[in-house]
Amino acid sequence: MRIYIVRHGETDANKNGCAQGWTDDPLNENGHLLAEITGRGMKGIHFDHCISSPLIRARDTAEIILRESDNSVQVSFDDRIKEMNFGSFEGTSISESQVVRFLKQPVFDHRFPDGESIADVMRRTQEFLKELIARDDGKTYLVSTHGCALRAMLNFLYEDPADYWHGHVPYNCCVNIIDVKDGTAVLTGDDIIYYDRKMAIDLYSKQK
Q: Taking burial as the number of CB atoms within 10 A of a residue's CB, which of 123, 143, 156, 193 is the most buried?
């Protein structure tokens, strides 16, 4: 069994350095392009199933990747792999003190006002992933999610779970691969990008 987990393409909120969370913003022009390049890079992979966050940026990324990789499976949705809810900080600049701390020194149990904590996101995303792993059905899955949700989902598979960002916020349209054999999951592809890295937004490094 193999699971490909991808972060959505670029949005204007990403470009402008804003906390997006559950705000349902679409991909921008570059986001569509990144998804198209990623899909073409994944040609030759046959997906049996596709599961996406219901937010439009993740859903559209999944549909573009499937189209460009010559796959025609139906996209299903799961609320558990939505992005972190930033509550009253949704739409604010990452220069806001609480969001900067979230990037520089993430505290797992710190909850944004009216929103979620990293621990909350880890619980729901890992419940989803562990259920998927338990199927161990020999199929190939595409999962389309978000940056914080992706790190939360994969945290238990990283060598150093205490390093929440795993060295870096995942780039838009990066691809992670999990291979499952006899119920055991191993991360075999880590933040793969199919486009020129110069096209990627890197707000995380600016906050370091």
A: 143
List the alpha helices (DSSP H) in the chain.
Answer: 12-15, 29-41, 56-68, 97-104, 118-135, 147-154, 203-206
Active site residue 68: no
Using alpha carbons, list the distances in angstroms from residue 196 to 13, 144, 179. 21, 21, 26
- Edge-to-edge, what's the strand order for the sheet holding 184-192? 75-77, 49-52, 140-145, 2-7, 175-181, 184-192
- Give the tens place of pLDDT for each residue, 101-128: 888 889 899 999 999 999 999 999 999 9
Domain hosting 99: range is 2-206
Beta strands at 175-181 and 184-192: parallel, antiparallel or unpaired: antiparallel
Q: What is the domain count for the chain?
A: 1
- For residue 151, give the CATH number of its domain: 3.40.50.1240
Catalytic residue among 32, 49, 63, 83: 83
